[in-house]
Amino acid sequence: MGTVVENVAIDCADAYGLARFWGAVVGRDVEGEAGDREVRVGMAEGPALYFNQVPEGKAGKNRLHLCLRPDTSRDEEVERLLALGASFLADRRNPDGTGWAVLADPEGNEFCVLRSQSERAAAN
């Protein structure tokens, strides 16, 4: 027996606005409209991203975060995400190419950008 993860819920101040950012990140459509308090971004595989508008702001570090593995290089993806409105928080990349970059979405939720599969394969 088991259960299925239906979605990853993200509390936020602007459900539609944050869903638009994440929809652009993952290249998927936003299911909702401006002003909606609950908005969804359906994924091609795995659980959906579900944005729930809440009255309180983010406080402290995320206890759960998303890790992204891009199709392009990690560094190219970091630049793309910064152009979409992400903020750079920490550089955990190592000289040997391992590691990750820590970014934050427009509401301050941390997430990581990992190396692509091709970068990982080239290192082996």
TrEMBL record:
SUPFAM superfamilies: Glyoxalase/Bleomycin resistance protein/Dihydroxybiphenyl dioxygenase. It comes from Actinacidiphila epipremni. This is VOC family protein. CDD domains: VOC. It holds the Pfam family Glyoxalase_6. PANTHER family: CONSERVED PROTEIN, HYPOTHETICAL FUSION PROTEIN. Residues 8-114 form the Glyoxalase-like domain. The lineage of its organism: Bacteria, Bacillati, Actinomycetota, Actinomycetes, Kitasatosporales.
